[in-house]
Structures are given as structure tokens and as C-alpha cells.
Design a protein that fits this description.
heterodimer; A: 311 residues; alpha/beta; TIM Barrel; Alpha-Beta Plaits; 2 domains; two-stranded antiparallel ribbon; 11 strands; globular; B: alpha/beta; 8-stranded mixed sheet; 9% strand; binds iron/sulfur cluster
């Protein structure tokens, strides 16, 4: 049986493509972006998290854990890392308040199809559909291939949000069942790309170019991370790349930086320093004026661009 | 917004009209001559005396004039009636069985009609004098029964009352012009108003302005009669012919019409606080419903939106008032402009909008089996959520079935968990209990338990219904004048004169009962984590010592509002059982009962009388309101809520089925999102639903407003079936709004 590990299913998702959609967040990512706004999507494993605000201090978890992994201190039940690697999940099962919770759940294809079709009427009225996001959805390619095929039987519009760092074959397998690709372009400078995401961008850029030859519907998405991707130099590089490779036919979306991610990190209790330090800089969401200025850069070059959640 | 409207809005918010009000209106109509008159004639005389003597006023800049300044009628009940009512009054409120609370009562406790609007179309067509003449003619007939004669006498008296009331305004204007130093413009304006109101004392209005002014006079005097929650029916249809005529003649522009409507709406807001009520009403719970849109009169297949529809919407946009309650009738083929305007108003945070979906509501009304097709097409929204036929219905809304109560009876052998009413002494008497169905050990399956719940619920409905039937009604000569069949038959609505006589009963806490029954199913019958007996004990102790269990129920069990089939099916079973049981009965007039899923103030107020519940709710905590999920339990977003609610057959709820959705204001930041929002609503209705209402606000704003009320004076939010100024709500109602899940973020 084929399973996928999914860390969230968001119904009435409205920022992930046309119409009313369901966005499925697949767990596991091939990049390691230091500004990642979905830290839960990072690891491909199911993880245990702890939310101290919910804990009612009933000590049930302490009683069931056979290896004494759980701290008595209410402020951090799990000692150093995010999770216990023992995977027995007993503490999760027994925790009544939901303070210990699992991120990630396994679904069979049919089950996920059933869940996404619950909102079929909404997709129909609004010309919406299903968006596959992550993490990197294309990592779980066998599952996704089957899943998309089934959705297509119901004429559901499908979108894949990808960071592009997978083998071309993974694109190729699902290209016919995917209506739109939302393709992330982050940093053009190869070395910076390596230092901020852990990988080189060659494969990514190549995939985008191949995709542009095969597929008409692509949206290029640029996450605006202050001082990292959102610099004049990087944006101009991106624009040049788009122009030089005749990608100007595609829509471009700028994603403003979302301060909420900071909160999210606190909540999921990630204290892995390497990820966290970027948020210590007190990065601020861009103002409307700045966003409009960024937009102008693209417009000047005759590109179709819009700012997500603003227009 | 023009300067006049701005000024009038400002003095409205400063309650400038309060200074004309009398706390207590002294006086009596009783004397040797009148004492022996029949009660309806006496009441008509009291009404006449009231409107002839109550303070009247015209404020600066007002175009529409009038207003209620008293809150009780002169005495007209005889000593015997008062004495007798003390012995035999069935109208005493109790929160369980005789909770017929949403009505006003008169001096001796009899229930005064509420909600029913007059047939304004007919009034505009005929004018006031026509009613007097009609009654007079009937009085000359030979074979008239005494009761009929008394009715027609009362009609003549109340019409005379209204006429002399308007005449007083004519005189007031004369006096103003003579004695006050008015600006030239204002003097001209008042002279014109004088001419117009002088005209409608006798004649049918011949201009748009005259019609609006006449409607306002009658509306406000209905409040004087004691009728409360009075609605205004389909104003865009009723006023359309005169509007069109004035425009064609060139004596009015669209802007002038807008100004008149805005003046009218501001005047409606003079009624939003009702100091004469017998309970603590919340400001804004006035039932002043204005219906717009819907099928075109005379052509059932066409939607009837017209320019006036948009003028009314525009006025709501500009004023941001809490009244009127705007009942918008929409349908599949509604004008796109209407949708866009509604979305615009919602995005501005206007909370006084209720959407009624005609295609489904009309089917639900058909199923009541009393209405003619023509009348259904012409239905009007009234009160908070109900639909009736204006000028033909004598509708009553009667109390609440608290769906959690039968569960309590079942768990505690027919007893209530809380036997004191903390707010309204006296203590709930022990006689007010459910059926003792004996020990809990005997239920071997959830189905058996559910059957027992239904037995208690059936009994509850029966008791409430029989109390409703027993309640005594007062005569309402004024409103009865304007209800078609009453006038034809010479019968007050109290005596069943109206063509349609529907009574509604609402059931509250649907989400909580579904969650509670599901928790029992799961914990007791499936996982066997607890026995019924133990659970009953735990609940009685308010979960004391069982916080683990409570947390598990709250966090780990699926809840109503997430499209989870098993819970949703329980909700469906309970709701439809309630509707089925209730509609088996007929009311005291032989009219139908109609079922409604709404809550009124139960969710904050009456719920204090319910103990801890198996859904994890502790004593004193709020319940869900209307058909919405319990606070914080909707985790799947709006489509999940809609799936849950759509599982229930709305055609069984001709009385109404209200879902509230609270959206973040940010959702409306882009045009694309607005479009998505619209499609969400459209799908909601496509799935068989009938009504929907909204609060659009950021919870952060609400918290700010709690801290700095002075900065948020005109922030409005949806309470149960009306909109209110947030900062004027009692804290617990404020908190409830804040705690509702903010969707679309
Ligand atoms: S998963 Fe098992 S071993 Fe790990 S902390 Fe929880 S109970 Fe202990
Ligand atoms: S079981 Fe959950 S609620 Fe109880 S102490 Fe552990 S984390 Fe806290």
C-alpha cells in the first residue's frame, strides 16, 4: 500500500491558486532554507511536538514513557531536540490536552482523494481545486502520481507548488495531470543559494527551463525574504534570468515576508539554533510601499507580476 | 453622505431624542362611561389618548418626523380584569416550560402581538381615511355581530388617533415657523413637510416622500400600541411605484431619494433601545427588519431588484447603522450587482445583513402547506430571521427548546442539574422537571439511549407547546386594522382574524447536543471509558477531579462543524426530530407550528441554567449560538462548517435555520478573495441552505475596542439575530463575539 506523509490539509485555502482550494502539505523537503516558513514540513518523518500552553500538568505522559524521555519540567517536556526518536507515540496517545501532538499523518491515496473531494461542490462553483504543497510534494512522487490521476477523473483542477529541487523525471511523471506549476525562484547566485538553502540551484533552474518547454501553465513565485532574497541585486538577477530565457510569458507572484512564521517557530518549540538565528534579526514584513516598489522593477521590464495577499 | 445626514447621525449617537421621552405616561381612559366598553374598544381609546397626548418633537435638520416618546399606554384595564389576571395568568415567564419570552406584554400580562408588519402596500394605495370609511360602512350593515361591530369601532378610533397625531405635527410646524427664528431654507423645508403630512392625514400618499413619512408614522405608533419587534416588509417593492413616478415627473432625484431613505433609517434607530421591555433587551434587538430583493411582485419568476434596492443598500453603506435588520432576498438569478454590493457591505463590516435564499426558502414555506404560491413569492423577512406574509400573517414567535435540557433530565432521572435560577428568582420549582425514565444501567446501546433522549425531548416540546397554547393574548386594534383578513372579517388578530397564523419555536444549542451525544456514544458505548452513571456524576460535579477526561473530550473527539459524518448525523437526527415533533401540533388558532434552529440569547443567558455537559462544557460557559459550531471547535474552516450544516434538511425549517460565519476583515483585501468569498456563499446555498449571516471583523480590533471603547463607538457586530454596537454590549456578549473562530485567515 502506498502512503504519503502529510502535515496539514487546509480547506478553503485561498492563497494557493484560483478559486476555493484544498491545499495538502506534504512532509519532507530536499532543501534546507534558513528562512523556511513551514518548519514542520522539513523532516519526512512524523514528529512529536509539545505546546506548553496547553499542558495541564497531568503527568500522564511521564507515566507511560518506558524510557524516561520526558522531562518533569512543564516548560520543555522533551529535552534537547524537537522529538523523541523512539516513535512509540504512547505519550501522544495518552495526552488529553493535545499539548503533545504529532505533526505528520499517513494517508492512503483513496483516503486523501476522499478528503479532498469533500469540497468538490466548492471547487465547482469557484473553479477551484487542489494544491499540493509542502515541504516538497514532488519527493513523494509515486503517491502523487496516483493521487493526481484519481483527482483528474473528477476533473479537479490541480496545482503543484515546488521548490524544484528534484530529478526531472519526477516532474515528467505528473506533468499531464497537473494544471499549473507554482515554481519557486529564490536566489540566483549559486553560492548564496548553497549557503542559504544547502544546495546548488543548477538542478532547479534546469528543471524550470525544461518545464517551460513542456508546459504552458507555470507561475513563478518569489518569496521576498528581507536581506536574503529581497535584495535589489537578487531581484534584478531573477528578472534577467526570466527575460533571457523567455519566461516572461508566465505570471510572476511576489510573496511578502510573513512575520507569523516567527510565532510558529516558537510554538512548535524548535530551538535548533541554525534555523532560528535568522529570526533574531527582527525581520519585518515589507510595507506596502516597498512591495509596490519591488513590483515596479518587474513591470519596467514588461513582466506580469502581482503581490500575493495585496492584489 | 451629505451634511444633513452627518448631523443627524451625530445627534443620534448622542441619543438626542431621549430627552423627549417620558419615563411613565400617566393617565387613564377609564371612567363611568368607558368602563363597560369591550376591551378592544377600550384599548383603542387608550391608544388614541396616548398618541394625542404624548410628547412630539421635530429635531433640527430632520426630514422624516415623528417618534415614540412613551412606553406604556394609559390605563384601560378594569379592576376586575386586573384582579382576575392575578389568579389566572398563564403568561408568567419561567425559563423552562413557559419561556414565551420574546413578546411584549401589557399591563395585565397578556401578550401583545409582535413582529407582524402591516400591509403597507395597501395603506399607500388607499390612505388612512379609507380605513375609517370602510369601518364606518361596515358598521351601518344590519347583520353585523357584536364582536365585529366592536372591532370596526376600534378601527375608527385608532385611525382618528393617528390622524390627530399627524395633525399635531402640522400644528407643531406652524408653531415653529411662527415662533422660532428659522433659516430661510429650513422654513421652506418645514413648510413643505407640513403640506405633505397634512395631505396624508386623509389621502393616500402621492409622492415617495409622503409614503415614507406615512410608513414611519404608522411604524412608530405600532410601538406605542405595545407591539414590539415590528418589521417593515419589502420596502423596495412597496415604495417602487411612487419612486418611479416622482423620478419620471422630475420632482425627485435619486440623491433626494437616498437622503429621504437615510433620514428614515436614522429615525428607525431611535427605537433601538427599548426601555419598556420586561427583560433586559440588548440594544438593537428591535426586529425592525427591512426586506429587499426577491421575486418581482406579480412575476414570480423574475427577481425584483430595482434602483430602490440599491438606494437602501447605499444608505446602509453610508450610515453603518445597527438598524434596520436588512433581510436580503437573493436567488440563483439575482442581479450580479446585488451580490457585489452585499460583498462590499460585508467587507466594510456591516453586521446587519441576513441573506435569505429564495429558491430554498420558498420550498420550505410550501411545505407548511398553508400559503398560496403568490403569497410565498411575496414573503417578507421579519424579526431576526423569520419569514411571513406581510399584512396577512399574525405570526408569533414563542420561546426556546434548549436541546441540552432533555439530556439533563435523562441523566438525572427527570431533574435539572441546576435548580436555582441565578438571575431571575424565584427558584425553578421542582415540579418543572422532565420524565423520570429510571436507572441509567439499562441502556445497552447508543441507539437505546438516543431513543430515551427523544422521549424526554418529545415531552419537553409537548409541555412548551401546551403552554404556548394556553397563553393569553391582548387585543391589538391598531395592527389588526392593517391586516387584510382582519379588516374584511371584522376580527382582531387575537381572535384569529388573520389569514395565516403561524407560530415558531426555536431550538438552541444544536452543536452542543450533537457533541455531547457523540461523546457519550464514544466514551460510554464504544470505548467504555466510563459508565453513564459515572459520567452523570462527573457532570454533576462539574468535571471536578476529571480534568483529564474533559480535556480528552475537548481535544480528541471530533466535533460538530467540521464535516465529520458521525457527529453531523447526530445533529441531523436531533434537529429533524425536533422539527417533526413540533410540526405535528397546531396552535391555539389552528395555525401551524414552524421549527427554527436559532438560539436567541440562550447562548449566554439561559445557558446559565444548564449544568456541565458531556461535550466538555463546564457550568456557566457559553454554548454555540444559532446553528454554528461550539466556540473554538470548528477546525476545518468554513467549508467544514458548511458541510456539517448542509447535512440537515432545511426544508423542514420553515421558521429559519441560521448559520453565522465570522470572517477576518483581511479576507476582503483583494478582489480575487472577494470573488472566492462570494462563491463560498453561493455553494452554501446550492447545498440546500436557506439563511446566512455574518460578522466581518478582526478579533484584534475587538480586543482593542474593549480596551478603548471611546474610539470604537460605531463598530457593529452580529449578536444573535441583529447587529449591535460592540462597545455597548455586556462584556459576556462581547467575549462571545471575540471567541468565535475567525475564518479566512
Ligand atoms: S514517544 Fe514513547 S518513548 Fe518517546 S517520549 Fe513518547 S512515550 Fe516516551
Ligand atoms: S500528558 Fe499532556 S497534558 Fe499531561 S503532563 Fe503530559 S504534556 Fe502535559
Amino acid at each position: 500500500m502506498l502512503y504519503a506523509n502529510v502535515f496539514d490539509i487546509k480547506k478553503f485555502s485561498i492563497y494557493d491558486g484560483p478559486g476555493i482550494r484544498t491545499t495538502i502539505f506534504f512532509k519532507g523537503c530536499s532543501l534546507n532554507c534558513k528562512w523556511c516558513q513551514n518548519p514542520e514540513g522539513h523532516s519526512a518523518k512524523i514528529e512529536l511536538y509539545y505546546d506548553k500552553n496547553k499542558c495541564i500538568n497531568c503527568n500522564s505522559c511521564l507515566t507511560v514513557c518506558s524510557i524516561g524521555k520526558i522531562n518533569k519540567s512543564i516548560s520543555s517536556r522533551f529535552s534537547n531536540e524537537i522529538k523523541c526518536l523512539n516513535d512509540c507515540s504512547k505519550c501522544y496517545d495518552v495526552c488529553p490536552s493535545g499539548a503533545i501532538y504529532e505533526i505528520g499523518k499517513c494517508y492512503e491515496v483513496d483516503e486523501l482523494v476522499r478528503i479532498t473531494l469533500e469540497d468538490l461542490e466548492f471547487y465547482k462553483t469557484s473553479v477551484g481545486g487542489v494544491t499540493l504543497s509542502g515541504g516538497e510534494p514532488l519527493l513523494q512522487i509515486d503517491f502523487i502520481e496516483k493521487f493526481l490521476k484519481k483527482l483528474k477523473k473528477y476533473k479537479v483542477n490541480t496545482i503543484i507548488e515546488t521548490a524544484g529541487f528534484v530529478e526531472w523525471d519526477n516532474f515528467y511523471k505528473i506533468i499531464n495531470y497537473t494544471d499549473i506549476f507554482y515554481f519557486d525562484l529564490k536566489i540566483l547566485n549559486k553560492y548564496e543559494h548553497i549557503s542559504y538553502t544547502g544546495q546548488s540551484n543548477e538542478l532547479i533552474l534546469n528543471n524550470l527551463l525544461k518545464l517551460s518547454r513542456e508546459k504552458s501553465e507555470v507561475v513563478i513565485r518569489i518569496p521576498l525574504i528581507p536581506e536574503i532574497t529581497d535584495t535589489d541585486e537578487n531581484l534584478i538577477n531573477i528578472i534577467d534570468f526570466i527575460k533571457n530565457n523567455k519566461l516572461g510569458k508566465y505570471d510572476i507572484e511576489l510573496l511578502p515576508y510573513n512575520e507569523l512564521a516567527k510565532e510558529k517557530y516558537k510554538k512548535v518549540g524548535i530551538n535548533c539554533k541554525s534555523i532560528n538565528k535568522y529570526f533574531d534579526r527582527k525581520m519585518k514584513a515589507q510595507t506596502r510601499e516597498i512591495l509596490l516598489e519591488r513590483k515596479k522593477l518587474f513591470i519596467k521590464k514588461g513582466l506580469k507580476v502581482r503581490i500575493l495577499s495585496l492584489e | 453622505m451629505d451634511r444633513r445626514i452627518e448631523y443627524l447621525k451625530k445627534i443620534l449617537l448622542a441619543n438626542s431624542h431621549h430627552k423627549y421621552r417620558l419615563d411613565e405616561f400617566d393617565g387613564t381612559i377609564l371612567n363611568k362611561d368607558t368602563e363597560n366598553l369591550p376591551p378592544n374598544v377600550r384599548k383603542a381609546l387608550a391608544f388614541k389618548k396616548a398618541v394625542e397626548e404624548m410628547p412630539i418633537y421635530i429635531q433640527e435638520e430632520e426630514l422624516i418626523i415623528g417618534g415614540r416618546t412613551i412606553f406604556n399606554l394609559p390605563k384601560y384595564h378594569t379592576r376586575e380584569e386586573i384582579k382576575e389576571s392575578k389568579f389566572s395568568n398563564n403568561n408568567i415567564y419561567d425559563p423552562i416550560f413557559n419561556n414565551v419570552y420574546n413578546e411584549s406584554i401589557d399591563e395585565i400580562g397578556d401578550h401583545v402581538s409582535d413582529t407582524n408588519p402591516p400591509n403597507y402596500g395597501k395603506i399607500i394605495k388607499n390612505g388612512l381615511q379609507w380605513y375609517w370609511d370602510f369601518a364606518n360602512e361596515r358598521l351601518n350593515e344590519d347583520n353585523l355581530e357584536t364582536d365585529q361591530a366592536n372591532y370596526y369601532k376600534s378601527v375608527k378610533i385608532v385611525i382618528e388617533g393617528v390622524q390627530s397625531h399627524i395633525r399635531r405635527y402640522v400644528e407643531l410646524i406652524d408653531k415653529k415657523i411662527k415662533e422660532e427664528k428659522l433659516l430661510e431654507n429650513r422654513e421652506r423645508e418645514l413648510a413643505k413637510i407640513r403640506k405633505d403630512i397634512n395631505y396624508i392625514i386623509i389621502n393616500p400618499p402621492k409622492t415617495f416622500f409622503q409614503a415614507v413619512q406615512l410608513i414611519y408614522f404608522i411604524h412608530t405608533l405600532l410601538w406605542v400600541e405595545g407591539v414590539c419587534l415590528v418589521s417593515l416588509a419589502r420596502l423596495d417593492q412597496i415604495l417602487w411605484p411612487l419612486y418611479e413616478k416622482d423620478l419620471k415627473k422630475g420632482i425627485m432625484t435619486e440623491d433626494m431619494a437616498l437622503e429621504i431613505i437615510e433620514c428614515f433609517i436614522i429615525k428607525l434607530n431611535h427605537e433601538v433601545d427599548r426601555p419598556n421591555s420586561r427583560f433586559t433587551w440588548l440594544k438593537g434587538d428591535t426586529g425592525q427588519a427591512v426586506t429587499i430583493g426577491g421575486t418581482k411582485e406579480g412575476n414570480m419568476n423574475k427577481s425584483g431588484e430595482n434602483d430602490l434596492t440599491f438606494i437602501i443598500l447605499k444608505a446602509i453603506e453610508e450610515l453603518g447603522p445597527i438598524d434596520p435588520h436588512l433581510h436580503v432576498r437573493i436567488m440563483k438569478n439575482s442581479d450580479k450587482k446585488v451580490w457585489n454590493m452585499i460583498i462590499k457591505l460585508l467587507s466594510l463590516g456591516r453586521a446587519n445583513i441576513l441573506l435569505n435564499y429564495d429558491d430554498n426558502i420558498e420550498k420550505a414555506l410550501e411545505k407548511v402547506k398553508i400559503y398560496s404560491g403568490q403569497d410565498i413569492a411575496n414573503y417578507t423577512g421579519v424579526g431576526c430571521w423569520e419569514q411571513i406574509i406581510a399584512g396577512k400573517s399574525s405570526y408569533r414567535q414563542c420561546g426556546t427548546i434548549e436541546l441540552l435540557r432533555p439530556l439533563e433530565w435523562l441523566l438525572y432521572k427527570g431533574h435539572n442539574a441546576i435548580d436555582k435560577d441565578p438571575k431571575r428568582n424565584p427558584i425553578i420549582d421542582n415540579k418543572y422537571t422532565g420524565i423520570n425514565l429510571g436507572s441509567l444501567d439499562k441502556y445497552k446501546t447508543f441507539e437505546e439511549f438516543m431513543d430515551a433522549y427523544k422521549t424526554e425531548l418529545r415531552y419537553y416540546i409537548l409541555m412548551v407547546v401546551s403552554n404556548i397554547i394556553k397563553t393569553r393574548l391582548a387585543y391589538n386594534p391598531f395592527i389588526s386594522t392593517f391586516v387584510d383578513d382582519c379588516l374584511d372579517a371584522g376580527k382582531d388578530i387575537k381572535d384569529g382574524g388573520a389569514k395565516y397564523k403561524e407560530t415558531d419555536l426555536q431550538a438552541s444549542s444544536l452543536a452542543n447536543i450533537a457533541d455531547s451525544l457523540y461523546a457519550i456514544k464514544k466514551l460510554v458505548f464504544e470505548e467504555k471509558e466510563s459508565t453513564l452513571k459515572d459520567l452523570a456524576k462527573i457532570l454533576k460535579d462539574n468535571f471536578c477531579g476529571y480534568e483529564n477526561l474533559r480535556q480528552k473530550i475537548i481535544n480528541k473527539l471530533p466535533k460538530y462543524g467540521n464535516g465529520f459524518k458521525e457527529v453531523d448525523d447526530i445533529a441531523k437526527e436531533v434537529a429533524e426530530f425536533f422539527a417533526g415533533e413540533l410540526t405535528r401540533y397546531t396552535n391555539g388558532w389552528g395555525g401551524p407550528f414552524r421549527a427554527r434552529i436559532t438560539g436567541g440569547q440562550s447562548y449566554v443567558d439561559n445557558i446559565k441554567l444548564i449544568g456541565a455537559t458531556p461535550d466538555g462544557r463546564k457550568i456557566g460557559d457559553y454554548t454555540s449560538f444559532n446553528a454554528s459550531p461550539q466556540l473554538g471547535c470548528d477546525k476545518e474552516g468554513p467549508t467544514g462548517i458548511i458541510r456539517t450544516v448542509s447535512n440537515i434538511d432545511k426544508l423542514k425549517f420553515a421558521g429559519g435555520f441560521i448559520l453565522d460565519l465570522k470572517f477576518s476583515k483581511d479576507l476582503f483585501s483583494t478582489q480575487e478573495n472577494k470573488e472566492k468569498f462570494k462563491n463560498l456563499i453561493k455553494t452554501y446555498f446550492k447545498l440546500g441552505n436557506i439563511q446566512l449571516q455574518f460578522t466581518v471583523v478582526n478579533s484584534k480590533t475587538l480586543r482593542e475596542a474593549q480596551k478603548h471603547p471611546e474610539l470604537y463607538k460605531d463598530l457593529t457586530v452580529r449578536v444573535w439575530g441583529f447587529s449591535a454596537y460592540f462597545v455597548e454590549l455586556p462584556k459576556e456578549y462581547q467575549d462571545h463575539v471575540i471567541r468565535r473562530t475567525e475564518l479566512g485567515v
